[in-house]
Amino acid sequence: MICGLDLGSRNVKIALMEGNELKGTYIYDTMQFYRAYARKQEGKLVVDFKRLGLPPAEKVVSTGYGRLTVEVAGAAVIPEIKAHVLGAVYQTGRKDFTLIDLGGQDSKVIQVKNGKVADFMTNDKCAASSGRYLENMAAVLGIDLEELSKHYERPVELNSTCAVFGETELIGKIVEGYSIPSLAAGVNYTIFKRILPMVKKMGNKVIVFTGGVAYNEALKNIMEKELNVEVLVPALPQFNGALGCCIYGGES
């Protein structure tokens, strides 16, 4: 059994694989995970897998936003880019595509050729194109993320891509009387506008879309419509990095 551990900023994702067969996936709030299931000992993070209720694993491979902050005891550590490419190739069977991974607090756009990383760009210094931005905007609109992800038609023009100042602009549009569907569509379009320069640079007619933001159906529709490309959302977009860790563990 191989355990893939993706230490995200918002969630910790775990995948278990035996050979090429997926045995289970688990997700935890990041702060809850560190409080209840992990302790730092001698500079390393010791994860209590028994308390998590997980079967013993022969190998643990970790990646993610928090991998540089805490080294998991007994685990091999691999870069996020590598983990996400391995996961995307495993989930889609494709080898040439642009991978867009939008997580809780950062975004990555990766050009993949013949199953390998050819180029990549990241944005980990601003939450503008991340799940945190969508959570903030949904709260301002008084709707949940599922409702937000339904809307992409007749978007309100929003110019601020900042997760903080965007709230002020959105409140102004609410005061002007725009409908919730148009406001939600405008929010989804700001994500698209934020990642567009990175996506254009990679240039590919197939996009694999992963990360928690990939559950946003509106953003998928916007990319297909505006870029005239095929957008694939794998079955487990949020677990893509954890699955990539398992694949790496099986190959190494």
UniProtKB/TrEMBL annotation:
Cofactor: [4Fe-4S] cluster
Sorted UniProt keywords: Iron, Iron-sulfur, Metal-binding
Keyword Lyase: no
GO terms assigned for molecular function: iron-sulfur cluster binding; metal ion binding
CDD domains, A to Z: ASKHA_NBD_YjiL-like
Xref: SUPFAM superfamilies: Actin-like ATPase domain
Transmembrane segments: none
Protein known as: CoA-substrate-specific enzyme activase
Species of origin: Calderihabitans maritimus
